Amino acid sequence: MLKVDITDDMVKRARDISNPEKQFNQNKIGRRANLTGALGEIVVGDFLKVTPHVYKSFKEMYDYDINYKDIKIEVKTKLVSREPKPFYDCSIFGYNPHQKCDQYWFVNLNKNLTHAFILGYISKDEFKQKAVFYKAGTNRGNLVYKWDNYVVKAYDLNDPIFIRD
Questions:
Q1: Which of 40, 163, 149 is nearest to 97 (CA)?
Q2: In whole angstroms, how far apart are CA 115 and each of 17, 35, 64, 111, 162?
Q3: Backbone angles phi, psi at 135, to 5 degrees
Q4: Which of these, 107, 85, 74, lies nearest to 6 by C-alpha position?
Q5: How confident is residue 63, by pLDDT bands cut at 50, 70 and 90?
Q6: Using one digit for the tens of pLDDT, what is the confidence trace for 119-133?
């Protein structure tokens, strides 16, 4: 897991690409999901030294966020109130397993947007093999899923430090 300082410039660039006036059906937490997701994309893009994908259509936006050396990356970002632990859930919504991406990257942002945590990445195929499906309403102790989710643990992810040249 990598801890990244979030700069004002990163937040500005995220705002520029976040479509704040729109609320897309796939965003279950409303308009704030646009900025959260965009900032996660900026964090991963800056780490990989690439610009997040500029979408030509809604379909492209749905399938992946970043193209890195011909690897289509979908970034999944969550707001958190504390630093993540290796046993934390990394999830995608139940309706998302058909995205045309090669890898999922998981990012947590602290709620005051001063730090991001790149938890790691996993290939789509490996995610499908390892993920456990939880129906909406499943109680996992300190968490009740509001929507269907496919879940792997943060410790199942690959360390991002090994992907960059």
A1: 149
A2: 19, 14, 23, 9, 21
A3: -70, 155
A4: 107
A5: confident
A6: 999 999 999 999 999
Structure token digits, residue 152:
């792997």
| Six-digit token string for 138 | 């499943």
Residue 4 · residue 42 · CB < 8 Å? no
Helices (H) and strands (E) in the chain, counts: 4, 8
Asked if 93 and 28 count as a contact pair (C-beta separation under 8 A), the reply is yes
- What H or E segment, with its residue span, contains residue 121? strand 115-123
Rounded CA gap, 112 and 122, in Å? 27
Q: Where are the alpha helices (DSSP H) in 6-164?
A: 8-17, 32-48, 58-63, 124-130
